[in-house]
Amino acid sequence: MATAGSQEAPRQARALALARHPKLWLFPTVLCGLLAVVLSLLYMGGIVNPTGHLHRLPIALVNADRGAPPPGQPENLGTRLAKAIVAGTPAGTVDWRQVDEAGLREQLASGKVYGALLVPKDFTAAVTALVTGGATERPTVTVLTNPSLGSLGSSMAAQIAQNAAHQASRAAGRELLAALPATPAPGPDTGATARLLLADPIAVATQVGHPIGSHSGLGLSAFYFTLLAVLTGFIGGNMIHSGVDTALGYTDSEIGPWHTRRPTVPIDRTQTLLLKMVMTAGIMLLTTSLVLICTAGILGMDAPHQAMLWLFAYCASLAVGLGVQAINAAFGGIGQLVSMFVFIALALPSSGATVPLQAVPGFYRFLSVFEPMRQLSDGIRAILFFDARGDAGLARGWIMIAIGVALALAFGFGMTRYYDRKGLHRWTPQPTD
What we know:
A hairpin with a 2-residue loop joins β6 and β7 (258-260).
């Protein structure tokens, strides 16, 4: 009589024998290798060189200088400084938006610019005082940051504005020093101290242009809340898909050593998809509420307009969940891989929520036109940081949610009805005992 030990050895030998077959290795090896290559290129390609891919990063430029032009000059020094800053920036890298102070407040409040450079109203008078020896301090231009658009984008804009101001200052200093007489005139000091000030006549100060709360993750809370909404829709949709198929007897239930197979319920693909979508709509009510309770209630995330935030997040999760159900219904076993690329792999690097879209390669900017995470992150950012303004991205977010839901319903039910009409049923009768 064979013992348990003697039976176990042939099983182990069987596994090792099967592992020697190259065909068994081929498909999973190729698929896993391709997945590693594609994900590496997608994720690292979007963030590895943001400055090298900089393309028209929007920064406001405000010339508030009201001084009269110096003798013999057609423009005041603030206007000349603004022109020098624009001309000294590499072509195509920065979109300098020249606005007045009211326009600056509007651009910052709607998230249209990542930062700003402000030339003060007494700039010409202050520089002139340096030349005549009537001042001992340099005039100051102010760099304003916008942390609500993310810490990386805001810091990039601040660095660009600071560098532009310093370059323009040194260029202006060379002109001012060249205009000084070789022998200082008697009177106010125009000697070594004045020349030192004139060599770099402009000081640069940095301030926060659009403040956000201390519980905002340095502007990243909008991205992570968006990620939670997408993940609850994506993972929840796949769990509902698997759970329904198991309950209806179309897939096995295997938990640890326990394996069961329920009797197959004869139901067509269209009705199955309808059931999964109804369950998705119901369960997303719970998951969205729990996400908001945990983030805003327990962790204290700064979250004004909580009712609107809940509604938008629910609709966002629902759109993703319905999309997952539609893709799974259309593609079957590889549906989860397809939906992972649609909602996660391609969406994350093209969201613009961590690295500005103006600092990623053009391929990602193309993806951002239709990939859902960009639209959803703009909407949630508008609710959290921009007083739920429609022009800050909220209106576009609602529109894209509506389009996403419509596409999921049309694609999902279109494919299942086609399969049903062709007689491509899923059920295989299973024994009930």
